[in-house]
Amino acid sequence: MAVDIDLVPKKSSSNNKAREASRNNNKVLKFQLEDSSIDKVRLIDLKNFIKRSLNIDLNRQRLSDQNGKVLVDDDDENSKTLDKFDLKDHDIVYFKDLGPQISWRTVFLVEYFGPLWIHPMLFTSNPISNLIYGGPVVHNRVQKIAFGMVMVHFMKRELESIYVHRFSNATMPFRNIFKNSFHYWILSGVLLALPIYGQKTLGSSNFGFFNSTLWITFCCGLWTFAELSNLKVHLYLKSLRPPGTKIRKLPKGYGFGYVCCPNYLFESIAWFSFGLINKFNWSSLLFWSISTLQMSLWALKKKKNYLKEFKDSEKDRIPKGWKAIVPFIL
Predict the structure, then answer these.
(1) If you compute the radius of gyration of the chain from its CA atoms, what whole number of angstroms results?
(2) Which listed residue, of 146, 157, 292, 314, carries a Cα 20 to 30 Å from 39's Cα?
(3) pTM listed for this prediction
(4) What is the three-state SS of 284-309?
(5) Into how many domains does the chain fold?
């Protein structure tokens, strides 16, 4: 027996004529293997063949079948054979070069670094901040606490990116780093900081009780609880996936009995408490709203994946009334 697979550069059209034209294209790679069968050839074998033939790194490759379904090997040892993807001998497999890649960890570190230099630049007295605010600013305790919250939050994020987070995918397209960084460098960097650290801000105004020690202590306590809870969930999620594996388990315990993403819930609470201490000025309200909306979309997607993967599991049962991010609501 022999295996014969045509590896065709991905085209924008998926109609039959386009497929035939692609098959006749001189860029088509012929993967042929004597004395083998479709149930013995792995997806990784096709990728390694493309790498040897065209010098395209494995992380840059995306393979799909004739129906456009992306072929993903989610086994720890990359052991998934072609028959598991319903491929047959003489089938066409499309491949696409995704372009230059960058590691997810690097993207996270770059994203979170933005607020760590933007906030100090606007908080401290220097030529740039003096030009923006019209001179040195004497900050009150609310502004100092807000600055501390931001710095601790993003330093925590950086440390988690280095020591805690484990990623399903090794890389992402390099061009995405600019889009992903916009949220942190602009929204949580420039736009969040500018209105808060000026001389005449909501944090500097007389709001009675909302400037009292009792209220500030409450906001700080809520923020601390949320940040520590977020860290606790991240450490737990790390424990579910051994290093170098793609194992997925249904998370349980702290918050997971109510929502599938309590880390997002606690993140939202942390920024909500940040907004409270700043009397929800427009920048903190905008950032909290956009962040919570984005995390809600991610949580809904994760919930959908959990339901698909564990709906028939006897060992890992989906909790009744399980929500995505907000208990009993969403």
Answers:
(1) 25
(2) 314
(3) 0.83
(4) HHHHHHHHHHHHHHHHHHHHHHHHHH
(5) 2
